[in-house]
Amino acid sequence: MLVFVFMRSAVFIERDGILNLDRVERDQPMPPLFLEQMEPNTGALEPLRLLKGAGFLLIATTNQPGLSRGSLSRRELDRMHSVLRQMFCLDDILICPHDANDCCPCRKPKPGLLIEASFKWHVNMERSFVISNKWQDAEAAHNAGCTSLLIASPWIGKGHRDIVLATLADVPGKIARLQSVSRRVGDLASR
Fold this sequence. Notes:
Blueprint: E1 10-14, E2 23-25, E3 28-30, H1 45-53, E4 57-63, H2 66-69, H3 74-88, E5 92-96, H4 112-121, E6 129-132, H5 135-144, E7 147-151, E8 163-165, H6 171-189
Parallel strand pairs: 1-4, 1-6, 4-5, 6-7, 7-8
Antiparallel strand pairs: 2-3
């Protein structure tokens, strides 16, 4: 018996810097450790609403080493994620709780969180996108077979990246254009 699984497209969103504004300490982005430190990015509401309306799964991914270090409680993390889920209509939030020294396959820039989501949600990675303002997400996207859309920031680095955009508001239009080109190429190939 053959079973067909419908593959979906997803937009993977870096939590810190996209869904909530970066806190910066000593010129480095720092994740909030308490709900009161988290400042949701209201500028993400409309772009994510448009992407959701276009049929994309919205999945946040985040490295949260504060969990393994003991500086972030699971209760506080859950409180923050509850706010983000409701505010941005997220389908899922995937977390890597490990420190960089743990050599974990899910800690970005490794693609483990994206691969986990692809199995859990039946995601077609070639038709999916990663939005971030950090180089680690672009590298994870590359390793998982997604297209990375980086929002210009001091943390995009010089490594692999597919597209750099000036603002988050530019993302839905860019994705629509990329999908349109992909469909036209597919139509030509099938002739």
